[in-house]
Design brief:
Elements (H helix, E strand, L loop, with lengths): L1 E6 L2 E8 L2 E4 L2 H10 L6 E4 L2 E4 L7 H8 L17 H5 L4 E5 L2 E5 L3 E6 L2 E8 L9 H5 L11 E3 L7 E8 L5 E9 L17 H5 L1 H8 L16 H8 L4 E4 L5 E5 L2 E6 L2 E8 L7 H8 L4 E5 L2 E6 L8 E7 L2 E8 L1 H6 L6
Antiparallel strand pairs: 1-2, 2-3, 4-5, 6-7, 7-8, 8-9, 9-12, 10-11, 11-12, 13-14, 14-15, 15-16, 16-20, 17-18, 18-19, 19-20
Length: about 350
């Protein structure tokens, strides 16, 4: 297969077969290498950019990741992508999805959304990283309800980090991802007077934060293992607290509702009744695939492209006007009439 680099404004062709560069002139290869000279940690493997990691299970590397000072060729999570992909040259594979484009290189990848670097993933399985990464880095993971670790001590710094353990014969770490925080809505301090404006809801960053379950209230996402009391202790007293006939409890902070089932935060629901949004306008602005389900309470626009990620999103509309946006966790999805058992 013929791949094309763009280096210093000109095109360079390389013939790749079975993952190997089988034709590239020495002069052209030198040009490609020079393009990566700005990052001493970048080398070429099979004509594809490779990151030479320092010791990952060290306090120094941990601080670079946890402070988002880690970068590849000067690019951090949250930066404008600019000409990054062009500079990196040939990639191993590319995934175009509903929620962005992922460029895979030899041992790292970038997710790009609207020309912003949404995530940098470091594939570190071969680095033999100690599974005791929390102790070494001097941090403690949030309760994610799963094997992976999430580090997000400072909620308003614009990023967070996830670390994925290797589940195999030998314990270790398979990947590290630095995520850009997309959108967290109005602050809780302003929740009682704040409103979800039409412009805010139709914004693509807001849409992605909802559909990726990145949206959170003080760091809590739908589906997290968290009791109602734990959330109150962390966030503060809610404006109201309720329990339905089935014993399900929920609390409200302004226009935000958090519902708990079996010690899990199952729903985060946003009351957007006053935002005056036509459902067709929202569907068009968000631009993702959806399913329409009618019920006695109204029409639901359901977003659930990935059936195995443990959550889905439902938007309730009445007379074509959007009423609420709700992120649902595992329990509801497994027991809801629409989804089966």
């Amino acid at each position: 297969m013929l791949y094309r680099y763009t280096v210093n404004g000109r095109s360079i062709d390389a013939l790749i077969h079975s993952g190997q560069v089988v034709w590239l002139t020495k002069h052209d290869m030198k040009q490609v290498m020079n393009e990566h000279a700005g990052d001493e940690n970048i080398s070429m493997e099979r004509g594809i950019a490779h990151y030479n990691y320092p010791q990952i299970d060290s306090r120094e590397f941990g601080q670079s990741v946890l402070s988002n000072s880690f970068n590849i060729m000067g690019y951090h999570a949250g930066d404008d992508a600019g000409d990054l992909i062009e500079k990196l040259g040939m990639y191993e594979s590319k995934e175009d999805g509903d929620q962005g484009t992922v460029y895979h290189y030899d041992n790292f990848s970038f997710m790009i959304i609207d020309n912003k670097i949404y995530a940098i993933t470091l594939n570190v399985l071969e680095e033999n990283v100690s599974p005791d990464i929390q102790e070494i880095w001097g941090v403690q993971s949030e309760n994610t309800g799963s094997e992976y670790m999430r580090f997000d001590k400072v909620k308003d710094n614009g990023f967070y980090v996830e670390v994925y353990p290797y589940i195999g014969p030998t314990a270790g770490i398979s990947g590290i991802t630095i995520y850009r925080e997309n959108y967290a809505g109005p602050s809780l301090e302003q929740a009682d007077t704040g409103r979800f404006t039409k412009e805010m809801i139709l914004n693509k960053d807001f849409a992605y934060s909802i559909l990726s379950n990145d949206y959170n209230i003080a760091g809590y996402h739908a589906g997290d293992n968290a009791t109602l009391q734990e959330v109150i202790e962390a966030v503060g007293e809610p404006d109201s607290r309720h329990q339905n006939e089935n014993g399900v409890e929920y609390i409200e902070y302004g226009l935000k509702r958090m519902t708990f089932i079996d010690d899990k935060l199952e729903f985060i629901s946003l009351d957007v009744t006053e935002s005056d949004i036509d459902i067709d306008e929202l569907r068009t602005a968000w631009g993702y695939d959806y399913q329409i389900i009618n019920s006695e309470s109204g029409e639901y626009t359901v977003y659930d492209t990935n059936k195995t990620n443990g959550y889905h999103v439902e938007i309730l509309s009445l007379n074509d006007q959007v009423q609420s946006i709700t992120i649902h966790g595992d329990y509801y999805k497994k027991n809801h009439l629409w989804w089966g058992v």
